[in-house]
Amino acid sequence: MSARLRPPESARATALAHPNIALIKYWGNRDPYWRWPANGSFSFNLDGLWTRTTVHFRAELEQDVLWLHRRRVTGEGLRRVQRVLDAVREQAGFTWKAEVISENNFPMAAGIASSASAFAALAVAAAAAAGLRLREPELSRLARLGSGSAARSVPGGYVEWRVGAHEADSFAYTFAPAEHWALADCIAIVQETPKAIGSSAGHNLAETSPLQAARVADTPRRLALVRHAVQTRDFELLAQVVEQDTHLMHAVMQTSTPPLLYWTPASVRVMQHVRAWRGQGQPVAYTLDAGPNVHVLCPADDAANVATALAEVPGVQRVLIARVGGPARLLPPEQALSPKGPAASEG
Ligand code: PMV
Questions:
Q1: What pLDDT is attached to residue 346?
Q2: How far is the CA of 122 from the centre of ligand 1 (A)?
Q3: Strands, E, within the chain: which ranges?
Q4: If I label 165, which of 35, 114, 144, 263 is the partner at 20 to 30 A Cα–Cα?
Q5: Global pTM?
Q6: How many CB atoms lie within 10 A of CB 320?
Q7: CA separation for the pair 178, 326 (Å, rounded)
Q8: Three-state DSSP class for 129?
Q9: Domains, the chain, with CATH or none
């Protein structure tokens, strides 16, 4: 088969992807270059929050160009995008550079995984723009090269990302569709500024904690419990495992060299309230990513009441509500973004 030297005529595509919240966290890599994870993880996608990305391969471009919220991005942000673009170009057999235009409808870099939705949308858009017809596991693996958790934003609903026997075998799949269990994530925002240490740097510190080996060794047990809790819609079991898992990850973070402490007093206050509410019979559970904001899980029917209660906890600035979301998907050409165009509305 001869490699194509140029992309197809219409080398532009647009995709939308949701961030996800991990119920079992990914923290640390077996191989950082490939983002081959130290342990398996499990998440659900967050409906209503999204990244929308247009990729346009163009013959006249001398370099890749990245626009995020109509601002030009260079440096590390661009290099991570190029990792995905290069993998696409290699598979498609051409060298054209790309213009990438992206925007989110939620706050970035504050413990809501904007990199997950960003790289999932990028992988789906770039593959389509290059004329590649990739299956979901291949798209998940492609997204993973930009950000590990992005592997989980490609499939829809409740998603497991398996470690795999080797890096090429490490991708995410749908464990149960979104409709299987109507849960919601009420995200208590206690801080909107970007965190000091991003997760890419954090993953590299995981091995410096004496607790990481124990956390990784115990992950198959926690994954089995979460699968069972989701399968049987057992909220109490889910709450126990999810909170234990987040504490294990933060214990590793807090005992790394240098230590990472993402919690603020407001984060701890929210956690204490959630524990108290559950003690009174309310089905709620918390989890925190690499940031201070607290994701409070509950049945979707309770989300409005839970959000109202969370908004009253001192230090909570606002609360976002997201139900379980679908997969990353291509959008029609008329929804393409342009660098100077108007900000996108709901996709
Ligand atoms: O995909 P990354 O490199 O942003 O890592 C995500 C790490 C956590 O959000 C803390 C956990 C997870 O599994 O999403």
A1: 40
A2: 17
A3: 12-17, 20-24, 29-31, 36-37, 41-45, 51-58, 65-68, 71-73, 97-104, 158-161, 172-176, 183-189, 285-287, 294-299, 318-323, 329-331
A4: 114
A5: 0.94
A6: 18
A7: 6
A8: helix
A9: 8-335 (3.30.230.10)
* Tokens standing for residue 170: 């490490």
Mutational pocket test of ligand 1: of 27, 141, 154, the residue with most ligand atoms within 8 Å of the beta carbon: 27
The pLDDT, as a whole number, for residue 28 is 98
Cross-sheet strand order for the sheet of 318-323: 285-287, 294-299, 183-189, 318-323
Taking CB atoms within 8 Å and a gap of at least 24, the contacts of 125-128 are 125/13, 125/14, 125/15, 125/53, 125/54, 125/55, 125/330, 126/13, 126/55, 126/84, 126/85, 126/88, 126/98, 126/100, 127/88, 128/13, 128/15, 128/55, 128/330
Residue 137 tokens read as 């596991």
Shortest-distance Cα residue to atom 4 of ligand 1: 199
Angstrom distance (rounded) from CA 236 to CA 41 = 19
Give 23 Cα–ligand 1 centroid separation in angstroms: 11
Tens-digit pLDDT profile for residues 266-325: 999 999 999 999 999 999 999 999 999 999 999 999 999 999 999 999 999 999 999 999
Closest listed residue to residue 154, CA positions, set 166, 167, 138: 138
